[in-house]
Amino acid sequence: MRYLIIGDIHGNLAAFEAVLQDVEAKGEFDEIWCLGDIVGYGPEPRGCIELLRRYKHTSIAGNHDWAAIGRIDISDFNPDAAMACRWTANQLTAEDTNYLQNLPLTLERDDFTLVHGSPRQPIWEYLLSVNRAHANFNYFDTSFCFVGHSHIPLVFGQDKVGTCFETRIFDELRLSLESNRLIINPGSVGQPRDGDPRASYAIYNSSAQIIRHYRVDYDVASTQKKMMEHGLPLSLVFRLNYGR
Ligand code: ZN
Question: Is 119 within a domain?
């Protein structure tokens, strides 16, 4: 089975479509595993939910998904994120809201746990340091865990004696050769923050036991144009140029 692993689409339909095109050009895939934040920031929240739902998929909830349906307080959001969140909430239909409402916080598939932020705090915690990763290896039972939320592709590992390590760049992980437990972030489809503006995703091939990480160009300008038409904050528009 081939699984498309995506997260943090953030209402950026052009980026999501580019990822799907890129994956389909590489061959068939069986299912999407989505790591949350389908909506928030971007100009097409409904289009992203609808496109995801056309595929066989499983998804967990992210903080922006919950914020858009009023399930968490946005007073912790910065003013631009809060504005985008209120705009997003106004776009959603009752069916979209119902879909987001029913997303779980964590899922286990095969030997993977799926969470948005971290196993310890599925909605809120950013996993960006070895110290935090180290603590989080105690909060899931599977060998591997996919996370999103930071929008930065990276891998944390824990070896047999409990020592943790981090690698920011990964093209390919051969799980069959790994004796380590891993926490893997495939990066963000719709708002990358690692300095590379291209959409980021991974493919997990379960029979080969390989995870590959990919980047793909998309039409950034078309997303930006729609954001400006909707009056979304310029800081959110411009950061797409830089992947920051
Ligand atoms: Zn996000």
Answer: no
pLDDT in tens, 219-237: 999 999 999 999 999 999 9
Phi-psi region of 159 (alpha: psi -120 to 50; beta: other; left: phi over 0): beta
Give me ligand 1 centre to Cα 177, in Å.
31
CATH number of the domain enclosing 201: 3.60.21.10
pLDDT tens, residue by residue, 134-189: 999 999 999 999 999 999 999 999 999 999 999 877 799 998 777 899 999 999 99
Residue 155 Cα to ligand 1 middle (Å): 17
Report the separation in Å between the CA atom of 224 and the middle of ligand 1, taken as the mean of its atom positions. 17
Q: pTM above 0.70?
A: yes
Cα 111 to ligand 1 centre (Å): 24
Distance set, CA 201 to CA 85, 102, 154, 171, 191 (Å): 24, 24, 11, 11, 12
What residues make up the domain containing 91?
Answer: 2-104+171-242
E strands, 96-153, in order: 106-109, 112-115, 144-146
